[in-house]
From TrEMBL, chains A, B:
<dbReference type="InterPro" id="IPR036188">
    <property type="entry name" value="FAD/NAD-bd_sf"/>
</dbReference>
<keyword id="KW-0812">Transmembrane</keyword>
<feature type="transmembrane region" description="Helical">
    <location>
        <begin position="376"/>
        <end position="393"/>
    </location>
</feature>
<dbReference type="Pfam" id="PF07992">
    <property type="entry name" value="Pyr_redox_2"/>
</dbReference>
<feature type="domain" description="FAD/NAD(P)-binding">
    <location>
        <begin position="12"/>
        <end position="329"/>
    </location>
</feature>
<dbReference type="Pfam" id="PF22366">
    <property type="entry name" value="NDH2_C"/>
</dbReference>
<feature type="domain" description="External alternative NADH-ubiquinone oxidoreductase-like C-terminal">
    <location>
        <begin position="353"/>
        <end position="407"/>
    </location>
</feature>
<comment type="similarity">
    <text>Belongs to the NADH dehydrogenase family.</text>
</comment>
<keyword id="KW-1133">Transmembrane helix</keyword>
<keyword id="KW-0520">NAD</keyword>
<dbReference type="InterPro" id="IPR023753">
    <property type="entry name" value="FAD/NAD-binding_dom"/>
</dbReference>
<keyword id="KW-0472">Membrane</keyword>
<dbReference type="InterPro" id="IPR045024">
    <property type="entry name" value="NDH-2"/>
</dbReference>
<protein>
    <recommendedName>
        <fullName>NADH:ubiquinone reductase (non-electrogenic)</fullName>
        <ecNumber>1.6.5.9</ecNumber>
    </recommendedName>
</protein>
<keyword id="KW-0274">FAD</keyword>
<keyword id="KW-0809">Transit peptide</keyword>
<keyword id="KW-0285">Flavoprotein</keyword>
Length: 438, 438
């Protein structure tokens, strides 16, 4: 069993190396605690740029950063690759793939995963994009389907391979639609002279009447405008009924033949087993008090996407964005120290820095408080904010070079199928490509 | 069936997008032929830097380059991802995963794969490193075994996870040994404070009495010297008897407990089925005449690692290096044009530009004809030669930045386990890490 070892200080276990988890660990540096972080992966992912990994604009490694390297100079920090199977609040223990762990304080920072709202068929056939392996699968699927399209002779045969349907018009869907539209407009016929640009279609679908739901009306309208000008079919007020891997069907009867459905229509928290059922609310989030403490469990905190700070001022919690996780992580670190020292805790207060979303190579929309603007300048801001937020000097430089490259020359990025994506459910006869990996 | 389509020009089919295949295609630009290239992957790999992908110094994408992108402006070029299952020289057809292909001229440029010399047990448990997926598997295995070692308590338990045995002291083995030694010397305890540097061992084994066999005595001696100074155990005149996934045993009775055996002790040509048996010689190479033509098959050529140009001057063929493949590719392209135009062909003449191998972060050995030198200046030459040879401006810049980063700061590179490597044969109880991918 892993316990507090080197010292007599209490052990703070953090589950998850996302934006929130990192801040907690950082905030506990040089404090009278030991920190043990667990994650399924040995890296932190800069999720806002996942869509660029999916479209091959960036390598996976440049938006990920080694957790061990990040904390290599923090003496009270340990890391383990592990998955948490269960939590026992009474005995203060975790059951994990690397054995039992006894914590003194626990921070659940497990983030969120794709929500298919219980539709098993869609879950089976649509592509999620919430992790690096998922983004890579999507990249390979897109490229494989372009390769397949080349092998087919008629437009009708090619159609399902060249129709891309993105469900969910939040920032992920909008950014991905822009990137795919640019792939169509500027790369497709260079790489695949056999194909016709007009035959590739990008559909962005949402059941709401606007794209970028939580943004200002002005940003939403302009984003839609940018997308339409780039040739994206924006289908609003449209609800998906079914998708069987071949045809996506909407509630109004419309159908689209496609082998590329990307699902970013919702998220839900990832909750370890053993969290009191009573504290789990809509969207699979853990309800907490104003200091991110889980109801009825004095030494368990939840932060970020998996948490909902429910107070009078925030009856629905906060939005599921990086800034909330970061700010909650900082606050929880401070409050754990306060508790240990017997000092009063300070409630979490969210400072909304605003929202940004990019559309294509050189346009973005920005809602920064009362200041709202769209276009090239917003894109510069978007670029700057993302570069400074990215972990690691090397990553910053490499991403910057890639962006400069893409800006000068549309034909940037790496469109390599490194690991073939095999969807178990697609009929074998549709797969012409070699199956070997080596 | 794929045939010559757009024109009445003869169809030249090239199997393989390695160094040789690319040169053939390039040499046929604007010539009265159609070119169809086939490869299992949609990218060319710069194999000399594979070992840096394996050790996490470089991302896979920066040593690979899209075949389609590379030839996007060559009008007479087509590409297909395909695997060749069979060749029928009589009917001039290929049987492939994308259907039949009728060629007029065929260039076999399929390269080589790891040669385990028939030892199935070693093949099952040792790691090869001849492709990007294999290099990534190796990277993940190394990192996973370091993570496993952290979970174990005694030095004895940790030993097999921290012993690295590289079999084959050619350039691959030497360069990998240098890189692993630097990982041990400069990174290990930063990333894994739980581990002891002295407990990680790197063994470089060869059955010959020297490292870098085909290099000059001076280069071999100096390379060994560099390795020993970096803490590599160089074991020469040593033949592997068996490896069962846990213990590697040598013919002299010595054993080493290790879960990390990397096999670069030999290569063999990858020959499509249907090549006349009579023309296949030692090392699974296709014997050709002086213009790289396969004996008895007038319109089939073989180049690079899979070929052996057997003439009086070269009774054993040429060494299996990139320069041979490149020069043969250029010559074959010229000769195909000569044949079509009814002109006399020109025999292949190898111009040996010399050999380079790097050891660690800032040392190399160089045999450039009569000029032989070793050390820092050789490393500068090595770096320059590899950068200019690398395809793609973006790749050059990104690799250069990575190298500068590693030079300034040993702790460079990305040590992320993006796709968990699962060896079917390792007992399940030894694997503590989570099995999920997403």
């Amino acid at each position: 069993m892993e316990t507090s070892t080197k010292t007599n200080f209490p052990l703070v276990v953090i589950i998850g190396a996302g934006f929130g988890g990192l801040e907690v660990a950082k905030g506990l540096a040089d404090k009278p605690v030991e920190v043990l972080m667990l994650d399924k992966h040995n890296y932190h992912v800069f999720q806002p740029l996942l869509y660029q990994v999916a479209t091959g604009s960036l390598e996976a490694e440049s938006i990920a950063f080694s957790v061990r390297k990040n904390f290599s100079s923090q003496k009270n920090f340990r890391f383990r690759i592990a998955e948490v199977m269960g939590l026992n609040a009474e005995t203060k223990t975790l059951d994990t793939t690397i054995g039992g762990i006894k914590y003194d304080y626990l921070v659940i920072a497990t983030g969120s995963t794709t929500n298919f709202f219980g539709n098993k068929q869609i879950e089976k056939f649509a592509m999620p994009m919430k992790s690096i392996p998922e983004a890579l699968n999507l990249r390979y699927l897109v490229l494989q389907n372009l390769e397949e399209a080349v092998l087919l002779k008629t437009r009708e045969e090619r159609e399902p391979y060249l129709n891309f349907v993105l469900v969910g018009a939040g920032p992920t869907g909008v950014e991905l639609a822009g990137a795919l539209a640019e792939l169509r407009n500027h790369v497709l016929t260079k790489d695949y002279p056999e194909l016709d640009k007009e035959h590739m279609r990008v559909y962005l679908v949402d059941f709401m009447p606007k794209v970028l739901g939580p943004f200002s009306e002005q940003a939403s309208a302009k984003a839609k405008d940018f997308l339409v000008k780039m040739g994206v079919d924006v289908l609003l007020n449209k609800k998906v009924e079914s998708y069987d891997g071949e045809v996506i069907k909407f509630e109004d009867g419309q159908t689209i033949r496609t082998r590329n459905v990307i699902w970013s229509a919702g998220v839900m928290g990832v909750i370890p087993k053993g969290v009191p059922e009573g504290s789990i609310i809509r969207g699979n989030r853990i309800q907490t008090d104003a200091i991110n403490r889980v109801e009825g469990a004095e030494n368990i905190f939840a932060i970020g996407d998996v948490a909902a700070v429910i107070t009078e001022e925030t009856p629905k919690g906060h939005p599921g964005v990086a800034q909330v996780a970061i700010q909650q992580g900082k606050q929880v670190a401070k409050n754990i120290v306060h508790i240990i020292k017997g000092e009063p805790t300070e409630p979490f207060k969210y400072f909304d820095k605003g929202s940004l979303a990019t559309i294509g190579r050189n346009k973005a929309v920005a809602d920064l408080g009362k200041i709202k603007f769209q276009g090239f300048f917003a894109w510069l801001i978007w670029m700057f904010v993302h570069l400074v937020s990215l972990l690691g000097f090397r990553n910053k430089i490499i991403v910057f070079i890639n962006w400069i490259g893409s800006y000068i020359n549309y034909n940037g990025g790496t469109r390599l199928i490194i690991r073939r994506f095999v969807r178990d459910n697609v009929p074998a006869d549709a797969r012409h490509l070699p199956k070997t990996e080596s």
